[in-house]
Write a structure and sequence with these properties.
Elements lengths: L1 H21 L3 E2 L2 E9 L7 E10 L5 E8 L4 E11 L11 E2 L2 E7 L3 E3 L4 E4 L4 E8 L8 E8 L3 E10 L4
Parallel strand pairs: 2-12
Antiparallel strand pairs: 1-2, 2-3, 3-9, 3-10, 4-8, 4-11, 5-7, 5-10, 6-7, 11-12
């Protein structure tokens, strides 16, 4: 009887941990809020996801990786939108306000202790590459964020036409 009770407690604890991670809860002092992904046109090969990452812990951390289920996209990367250099021909950006903007993959995104870092259109964001199908409003995308110190955090992003 005692063994069954321990297994039951372990099962309940496991469900709680998975549920908290799926809701975008905190990990190692990190909290992810306002996670969303933009709807994509039918022929789009890429999509984007955005969120707020707050580091309520006492130590700096960094987002060092992101992954997504292959049923959603082939891969996911951390990107930054920046002003293109005049001689840079390897852009895949657009004309925004007279200057050419481009998106570049970054290896890490610093999340300083006590601060919130915004992943938003026109700045840092998560690129979803080689979409399996269009991102449709009302659906969700599950992302696994990997932090240097806090480890992995699973976040569910609602697909929306506009941000929260």
């Amino acid at each position: 009887m005692k063994r069954t009770s321990c297994r039951r407690r372990l099962a309940i604890a496991s469900v709680l941990v998975v549920t908290l991670a799926a809701c975008g809860g905190g990990s190692g002092g990190l909290e992810v809020t306002e996670a969303w992904a933009r709807t994509s046109p039918a022929m789009a090969e890429a999509g984007a996801a955005y969120m707020q990452i707050t580091n309520g812990g006492g130590a700096d951390d960094a987002l060092v990786g992101v992954s997504v289920d292959p049923a959603v996209a082939r891969s996911a990367e951390i990107h930054e939108t920046v002003m293109a250099e005049a001689d840079d021909e390897a852009t895949h950006g657009s004309d925004m306000g007279g200057g050419m903007m481009e998106m570049r993959a970054v290896d890490r995104l610093e999340i300083p202790a006590g601060e919130t870092v915004s992943l938003q259109p026109g700045g840092y964001h998560i690129m979803l590459l080689d979409l399996a199908s269009p991102l449709e409003e009302g659906s969700t995308v599950e992302l696994t964020l990997t932090f240097e110190n806090a480890g992995e955090l699973v976040v569910t992003a609602e697909v929306r036409a506009t941000g929260p």
